[in-house]
TrEMBL record, chain A:
One of the record's GO cellular component terms: plasma membrane
GO biological process: transmembrane transport
Protein's organism: Mesobacillus foraminis
Compartment(s) where it occurs, according to its Swiss-Prot or TrEMBL record: Cell membrane
Protein name from the UniProt record: Multiple sugar transport system permease protein
Keyword tRNA-binding: no
Domain ABC transmembrane type-1: 73-264
UniProtKB/TrEMBL annotation, chain B:
Domain ABC transmembrane type-1, residue spans: 90-303
Residue stretches spanning the membrane: 30-57, 94-115, 127-148, 177-199, 233-254, 290-311
Highest taxon, organism lineage: Bacteria
Record-level GO cellular component terms: plasma membrane
Keywords associated with the record: Cell membrane, Membrane, Sugar transport, Transmembrane, Transmembrane helix, Transport
Family stated for the protein in its record: Belongs to the binding-protein-dependent transport system permease family.
Membrane topology recorded in Swiss-Prot or TrEMBL: Multi-pass membrane protein
GO BP field: transmembrane transport
Protein name according to UniProt: Multiple sugar transport system permease protein
InterPro entries, alphabetized: ABC_transporter_permease, MetI-like, MetI-like_sf
Length: 279, 319
């Protein structure tokens, strides 16, 4: 009995210790955001702030160029909401078509979809920019949001995999009951694939919330900036060495990310384990 | 694709469908394409047309304001013969990929094996280890990373505790790339999850049989775990290599958009971005994108070709 307990302790000290080591940068960031800017690096050896101060958050919240950080958060929330709805709805429709319907050319388009999934975005980045510039979509949300309504290969694949686990007998029973294709999708499949939709929605949130390259290319006026761009601006203005404010706002942008992770970790971890492709 | 008149049934017999059956097939096709139409339209608008444009522009001199001017292979020639920064970015990226991906996967496998126990705490640890990889692409994390590697940052403090002199991460171009590699290794979580799922699917009876035969832990790892896991390792290697080649945000933030010090963190994507959107050499940047596509394609092909030697598929089709 005693031997087992020694083993148990060794395991948890080892694994738990490693987990703390991994998460230490986050803890350090959080603690530093409560320290006086000028003392952050001088006192980096001691984790706990002395004294605890809130002024970094007040200072950081003032934002940049007359736009408070609240404006950047609002912009990002709008972008995330529009993108998330588009990606999940369009990907679900496409996934149902690939997973359940029979039509000529299906294998071809599925292969195209898988190739698109692996295609480096750099190849299409510049031509897309040129097209959006010609359409006069620059400095608006359109180039970031509209493509989201045309299916996202990663989510299509994830949902296809999930639909394939649902027994076809359910569809067949529904056909006998006189359901048409859309009704089968809407009444049978949709309620059953909620976990996959939740996973897709969560990842959509993460990728859009964190995105930097797209917003940097397409949003020019500070009033339209997202949180990622605002943090990037803080960094560019770093000469004033207002570390505290930058750290405080970094913490603010991580809060929703952590909250969603701890609320929905089941969906995230399961989704990644079964079909994990990115990250 | 079968021709519209002669079709095959499920048993593979060829038959000529009746008019009614043809009508039903047409309706099926229309329904199918209605559902996948968002993807098909989006593919033409946001992928295929841009790819064709990109290929054309790679043979031109184009700055977004004046019309593109055809210059043949000049961009490609310049890249390989007259642009030392290009070679630097390629070198840095290859170091990043070939050091980062194996380290990341090795770590992922090690931790996955440690977590592959019946302990109830595993779910909790699994989530903690996965967290960095979920948010690793964010600006906040890159800013954090930038600061823990500062001259007085916690990494150098930790090194000094171990008696190792501090490293000037932002002064030395060969040290700087390691900041990015460590950041990538730190985000081993998603590979770990896939490995963990793979480990759980290995039948326990294999290990029990090996124990009966007197195999030790190392022999079990080499003879059972690695072969059984090899399809998952292949999948992870391919996906992580492609992803690593496209890394942008950490290099952009950590070097403040310059690729410094002395181009030490000038990853391929970052240099491509600078050429396209800072210097407005859009033709040149597109040529870079095509070479990147070719390199990624070759790397993937090599990994797949080599997989015949080391990937073990089960007789029943396996994974």
């Amino acid at each position: 009995m005693k031997k087992k307990s020694v083993k148990w302790w060794t395991y948890h000290v080892l694994v738990g210790g490693f987990a703390i080591l991994m998460l230490y940068p986050f803890i350090w960031l959080l603690m530093s955001s409560f320290k006086e800017s000028s003392t952050i690096f001088v006192t980096a050896k001691s984790l706990i702030p002395d004294p605890w101060i809130w002024t970094n958050f007040v200072e950081g919240w003032k934002g940049i160029g007359g736009n408070s950080f609240g404006v950047f958060i609002k912009n990002t929330v709008i972008l995330v909401a529009l993108t998330l709805v588009g990606q999940v709805v369009s990907s679900t429709l496409v996934a149902y078509g690939f997973a359940r319907l029979q039509f000529r050319g299906k294998a071809f388009w599925f292969a195209i979809m898988m190739v698109t999934l692996m295609l480096p975005g750099e190849v299409v980045m510049i031509p897309q920019y040129i097209i959006f510039a010609k359409l006069e979509w620059l400095n608006s949300l359109k180039p970031l949001v509209i493509p989201a309504y045309f299916g996202t290969p990663f989510f299509i694949f994830l949902i296809v995999q999930f639909i394939r686990t649902i027994p076809r007998e359910l569809d067949e029973a529904a056909i006998i009951d006189g359901c048409n294709t859309f009704n089968i999708f809407y009444k049978i499949i949709l309620p059953l694939i909620k976990p996959a939709l939740a996973t897709a929605a969560i990842f959509s949130f993460y990728w859009t919330w964190d995105a930097l390259l797209g917003p940097v290319l397409y949003l020019n006026s500070p009033a339209k900036y997202t949180v990622s761009m605002a943090l990037n601006m803080f960094l560019s203005n770093e000469t004033v060495s207002n570390w505290g404010a930058m750290f405080a706002m970094s913490v603010v942008t991580l809060v929703p990310v952590f909250v969603i992770f701890f609320l929905f970790q089941r969906y995230i971890v399961e989704g990644m384990s079964t079909s994990g492709l990115k990250g | 694709m079968s021709s519209p008149v002669v079709r095959e049934n499920v048993q593979g017999e060829v038959y000529v469908p009746s008019a009614k059956a043809r009508k039903r097939a047409l309706k099926q096709d229309l329904t199918g394409y209605a559902f996948i139409s968002p993807f098909v339209i989006g593919f033409f608008a946001f992928t295929l047309i841009p790819i064709i444009m990109s290929l054309y522009l790679s043979f031109t001199n184009y700055n977004l304001f004046a019309p593109p001017k055809w210059i043949g292979l000049e961009n490609y020639k310049k890249m390989f013969t007259a642009d030392p920064r290009y070679w630097q970015s390629l070198k840095v990226t290859l170091i990043y990929v070939f050091a980062g991906v194996p380290l990341r996967l090795g770590f992922a496998l090690l931790i996955a094996m440690m977590l592959n126990t019946a302990s109830r705490a595993v779910g909790f640890y699994r989530s903690l280890f996965y967290l960095p990889s979920l948010i690793g692409g964010s600006v906040a994390v890159a800013i954090m990373w930038r600061n823990i590697f500062g001259d007085e940052g916690i990494v150098n403090i930790a090194l000094s505790f171990l008696g190792i002199p501090g490293v000037r991460w932002f002064g030395d171009p060969t040290a700087a790339i390691w900041m990015l590699i460590f950041l990538s290794v730190w985000q081993f979580g998603s590979s770990m999850l896939i490995f963990l799922a793979g480990l759980k699917s290995i039948p326990k009876s294999y290990y029990e049989a090996a124990s009966v035969d007197g195999a030790n832990a190392w022999q079990k790892f080499i003879k059972i775990t690695l072969p059984m896991l090899s399809p998952v390792i292949l999948f992870n290697t391919v996906m992580q290599t492609i992803a690593a080649f496209m890394t942008f945000v950490p290099a952009f933030i950590i070097s403040k958009g310059t690729g410094g010090p002395m181009d030490g963190t000038l990853l391929y994507s970052l240099y491509l971005y600078l050429q396209g959107f800072e210097f407005f050499n859009m033709g040149y940047a597109n040529a870079m994108a095509w070479i990147m596509l070719i390199i990624v394609g070759i790397l993937t092909a090599i990994i797949f070709a080599s997989s015949k030697l080391w990937v073990h598929y089960e007789a029943d089709g396996g994974k």
